[in-house]
Amino acid sequence: MRLLVCLLFLCASAAAATVVPKQIVADVAPYVDAGSANADAANIDWLGNDPRQDAVTLAWASLELATALKSAGIPARVYAPGHANAKLPTIQLSILPAAALGDQGFRISTSTAGILVEGRTRIGVLYGAYRVLDRLGFRWYSPTDKVVPANLAATVIDWPAWSEDPAVRWRGFWIPLDGVSTPVGESYAIWMARNRLNLTGTLPLAIRAKLGQTAWNGGHRLLQEELSAAGVFAAHPEWFALVDGQRRSISATTGTFYNPSFVNPDLANWFADRMIARLSGGDLADVDMLAIWPSDGKIRGWDESPEARAYGNNTDTLLLFYARVADDLAQAVADGRLNRPVTISGITYNDTWELPTRLDILPVLGSLDYVHVYYDPERSFGGALTDDLSLRDSDRIHVQRLADWKALGGLRFGITEYFNNSNYGGVPIIEHRSLLQDFGLQMGGGGSLFAYMHPLATKPGPRKLTNWLVANLAWRGVATGPDEYEGWIADYFAQRYPHAATEMRAIYDLMDTAASNGREVFLRVSLRHLLFIQQRSTPVWTVLQVSDLANRYLNGGHQVIPAPGAKATTDTVSADFVGVFQSLALLAQAKQRIDALATDGENSAEKARRIEDRLWAYGAWQRYELLRVATLYYREINLLVASTTTQAHHDRIVSLNSLLGASVIMKDTVTPLVVQSENLYPPEWLVFP
């Protein structure tokens, strides 16, 4: 889909003006009123052709309009058709099945009679209602952080008519959940819908169907859960990887596993049957898009059997597996074994960035209910992906291999970003200065899905700006121009900080610059990894080498550092990044400037935002300070330097861990499966064996 903005009146004509209507008209028959319709959502057959589906979503849209307008002093009410005062303007919600719009599209026109919102589907009308509120000045930056426009009763509406369709079909987040975890909260789903985000985690059918949400779940765990079940390996060893001449079983408890024999057709059929059972009445019953991923990391191997090697490379065998599973699910829908279409989302990640050699499988996947999603945790945030990347090897590699994949054609594709990887807790990667360019490069060519992991629930702080920009960009698409994008950012600060918009924007710039080294400092084979993690298995770098590398991370600039997936000291990349010392200085400055803000005239909402952003500036400073002190302690405890401050540094690490571990910014992900405070390690982990 593409965004279509068109004038429905002649360009020379002006839209007829109206005031903000107090009447909202929606057809919610057979219900007596909107409240009754909305209350009946759990009793609707959302997977069939229940005619009440339209009534319930239109009821919700009309109630959302009424509630918002009332909060701004407009005593709005919802009426059935024919019951409103014909002499007063109305907001009319209408479904037009024959409208030249996509299934999420809408058109809006105004006249002296009020505002007309039309959509081809109920979800299109819902999004149109939210666009009306957006045009009136309402904002929802989180489930609890909203902006209500002032003086709305005096507002005159003279909008030209226009229509919109989203550029990206699926827009939102990767929120992994299992059968035990609590589903995504209803208030969070409502916040997403208000921002026209529609890709979420597991969510009860009545909520997600009413709001037009797609529940996305699965991940690495699915293969591991099924293939580690008792008796499977003994009965079917041929389904498992042949590595170094031995079939490798899969354990239920290891973090990674040997990828199975994806080329085996019986494995694919059996696995599809297991997914159909779980999707039909098991723990995946509330899932619309199923992510099936191979093992995480690069520790374990892939199938080396003659059958696998004869077929192609690892990517080839995985794509073949996806095609077989997706086809089996389609057959299950056709014969009634599965009560709804389920999209399979495949993955290019780690070892499967290797291009496929069997291109005949691509049109097969393109004909199925399948989307191929690219994941690259190895890219950095040191600038836009459209910049000169001659000093940023990881980004240059990412851009090239993404272009190579997209050049193959035939696949519906998407992008999942790592703005909040599990290791990035408390690190304010905002990306507002380069997201426009990055989105254009990554989604160019017609991407169907854009998401990031892992969104935060209650205190997103500066990531509220990231969410705001993702929502607008994914709706508007690659056609977004710099002026429009800049307008979204300016609006964000003007609405949230009316007394300090310019200063807060400068503070966000400081925080984003400070955190732009997140990949180099916190992620794979980073400073954090070298200090705390690598010696706990088979060390690659000696104490002296780690000490030398630590200086490079602390000082930043143009440095040669270990590659993100390095397995030997010779695996290096050129990088250009902000050093830890500079991050500390920038975050300290951000905190000081927040503290120096004048608070005269500040309302309670603005005060709460300022306190939340200060929490982030200080929390991020603590994360970087932890690494600075850990470097000193590492050198002392491993006898590289003589010092009288060893115990003080030990105690400082313990104290910082305690402060960060208790901070909401380190344990606030929507999914309870990702607890970022678990990535804080005790000083004992710094001791080299």
What can you tell me about this protein's structure?
- Mean pLDDT is 95; it is low at 1-14.
- The radius of gyration is 27 Å and the shape is globular.
- Strands 11-20-19-18-17-16-13-12 form an eight-stranded parallel β-sheet.
- The chain starts with 17 loop residues before the first strand and ends in a 27-residue tail after the last helix.
- It contains 22 helices and 22 strands.
- The chain has 689 residues and is an alpha/beta fold.
- α14 (463-476) runs antiparallel to α15 (482-496) and α20 (580-595) packs antiparallel against α21 (604-637).
Quick recap of the structure?
The chain is built from 22 helices and 22 strands.
- End-to-end separation in angstroms reads 56 Å
Query: In percent, how helical is the residue content?
Result: 40-55%
Structural class given helices, strands, pairing? alpha/beta
Largest pleated sheet: 8 strands, parallel
Mass-distribution shape? globular
Mean pLDDT: 95
Radius of gyration using CA atoms only = 27 Å
Beta content comes to: 5-15%
Task: Enumerate the strands of the largest sheet in spatial order, edge to edge or round the barrel.
Answer: 11-20-19-18-17-16-13-12
Residue windows where pLDDT falls under 50 for at least 5 positions: 1-14
Ordered list of secondary-structure elements with their pairings:
Elements: E1 18-19, E2 23-26, H1 34-39, H2 52-71, E3 77-79, E4 90-95, E5 106-111, E6 114-119, H3 122-136, E7 139-140, E8 146-147, E9 156-157, E10 162-164, E11 170-173, H4 186-194, E12 199-200, H5 205-211, E13 214-219, H6 221-227, H7 232-235, E14 242-243, E15 246-247, H8 265-281, E16 289-292, H9 306-311, H10 314-334, E17 343-348, H11 361-366, E18 370-375, H12 393-408, E19 413-417, H13 435-443, E20 449-452, H14 463-476, H15 482-496, H16 501-514, H17 518-522, H18 527-533, H19 543-555, E21 556-562, E22 572-578, H20 580-595, H21 604-637, H22 646-662
Parallel strand pairs: 2-3, 2-4, 4-6, 11-20, 12-13, 13-16, 16-17, 17-18, 18-19, 19-20
Antiparallel strand pairs: 1-9, 5-6, 5-10, 7-8, 14-15, 21-22
